[in-house]
Amino acid sequence: MKTFPMFLQMAGRHVVIVGGGEQAAQKARLILKTEARLVLVAPELDAELAALVATKRAEQVATLSVDMMRGAALVFVATGCVGADYAAHTLAKAAGAVVNVVDRPALCDATTPSLVDRDPVIVAISTEGTAPVLARQIKSKVETMLEPNLGDLAALAGRLRPEVSRHIPQAVRRFFWDWVFNGPPRQAMARGALRDAARLIKAQIAEGTTGKIEGSIALVGAGPGAADLLTLRALRLLQEADIIYYDRLVDASVLELARRDAERVFVGKEVGACSWPQDRINAVIVAAARQGKKVVRLKSGDPGVFGRVSEELDCARAAGIPVEIVPGVTAASAAAASLGRGLTERGSTDRLMLATAACKPGDADPDWAQMLQPGTALAIYMGVAKAGAIIDSMQAAGIPLSLTADVVSQASTAREKRLRCRLADLPAALRDGQVENPAVILVSWPKTHIAMPSSNVAA
Predict the structure, then answer these.
(1) Are 40 and 64 in contact (CB under 8 A)?
(2) How far apart are CA 174 and CA 329, in angstroms?
(3) How distant, in Å, are the alpha carbons of 57, 137, 366, 368 from that of 357?
(4) Which residues are catalytic?
(5) What angle (nearest 5°) sits at the alpha carbon of residue 200, between those of residues 196 and 203?
(6) Domain assignments of the chain as residue spans, ordered by start
(7) Architecture category of domain 14-112 in CATH
């Protein structure tokens, strides 16, 4: 290493920033995260820095001197002028200060790393100035690994540490903290439930025991296919999971983001493959959680939209197992995004209906006359195979077949297909375009409807 990473104590100290423009403001934003006093050296300040002075978050000094830099935790030089940068650097060195001159590596005693801030948890990333873009990429990955409120749990642990020392025997204290940061308190904090986390930890301290790492179930939305449409919480749970039960519609690229040693179990229904009935899925995810495993039930799209989420929720709750739902990007949203438009349009379609053509066996078909009315946008999931019956039902209900239908199959993936036609032409257009499920059929009935010509376009 050419540089040595170290965290500096900033409380009760001051930081000098020489310069009054945007570069100086960037350094000020960084230091404002600390408890250091900020001294801005410039005859004029931009609006952002001037506001800091006006609100007493910083003080302004017009002229630089050696004395003001003595004892400074850091000196940043960001004037943007070569001569002024060198002059300020010379004075800072005369004061014995650690100095950083923006964009002039040869004049830097220290460089500012990329930071992942979960105060008091701080991760610093540096490439010693060789590859700032790479440092930012690493930062982005670490950001996804650490839940946004992890610092709150660390701060809570710090406040409770004296109580832990008094009530938890030293021989088992490490196991207690392992339970805090890998068990129910961490899981509660990840859901944003600080009070629940505190209650769990305090109860365990009162008992004087180490706690038990319990199993859990997360019903996670994998999104429509593209791995980069996963939520940060979904990604974190995939990387923490002991076992993942996934459907056939979950894209392989999403599974690649899971922890390498996590067990993966396919529970989807696919032509020619073994079918898993829902009660069997319920049983295996509960059994795995009872073994203390972190279970992820990975569903395509959003688990709350035609994902049978209520059945798995009820089963987990009946077994007393902690369970959470992690929303995902649903297929209708992805389909509209692929088409370059929204699902609704102000003044034209102000109601959105979601329906599935894959109804429970024995259930009646959806009431299309009730669902699709003027001012409505309708998204039909998994409707390709039943397109003919859907159009017949719509025609019988008096819905104009001159309305436009957009179909997006496997939205957001490399296998995506798009098709546009009139409702009347939909079954033939799907057949000619060789469009198959999984697909979403989007139909909008604007308040003012203009009939579409009888032609279709496939992409």
Answers:
(1) no
(2) 39
(3) 60, 42, 8, 11
(4) 247, 269
(5) 135
(6) 14-112, 150-207, 216-329, 333-458
(7) 3-Layer(aba) Sandwich (3.40)
Alpha-carbon span 367 to 394, nearest angstrom: 9
Q: How far is CA 279 from the centre of its chain?
A: 31
In CATH, the architecture of 216-329 is 3-Layer(aba) Sandwich (3.40)
Nearest in space to 355 (alpha carbons), one of 327, 325, 326, 386: 386
Residue keyed to tokens 């300020």 = 88
How far is 205 from 223, CA to CA, in rounded Å? 40
Q: Work out the average pLDDT over 292-297.
A: 92
Residue labelled with tokens 């429509």: 224
Helical residues (DSSP H) of 55-193, grouped into ranges? 66-69, 82-94, 132-145, 150-167, 170-182, 184-190
Could you give the residue ranges of the DSSP H alpha helices within 213-251?
Answer: 232-240
**Residue type at 69 in one-letter notation:** M
C-alpha distances (whole Å) from 367 to each of 109, 389, 397 are: 72, 12, 9
Contacts of 34-40 with C-beta under 8 Å, sequence gap 24+, read 34/10, 35/10, 35/11, 36/10, 36/11, 36/73, 37/13, 38/14, 39/14, 39/15, 39/68, 39/72
DSSP reduced 3-state for 97: coil
Q: Residue 161: left (phi > 0), alpha (psi -120 to 50), or beta?
A: alpha
pLDDT for 394-446, tens place per residue?
999 899 999 999 999 999 999 999 999 999 999 999 999 999 999 999 999 99
pTM value? Answer: 0.66
pLDDT in tens, 308-338: 899 999 999 999 999 999 999 999 999 999 9
**CATH level 3 topology of 333-458:** 3.30.950
- Condensed to tens digits (0 to 9), the pLDDT of residues 338-372 reads 999 999 998 899 999 999 987 777 777 788 888 99
Q: What is the dihedral of CA 11, 34, 139, 101, to 10 degrees?
A: -90
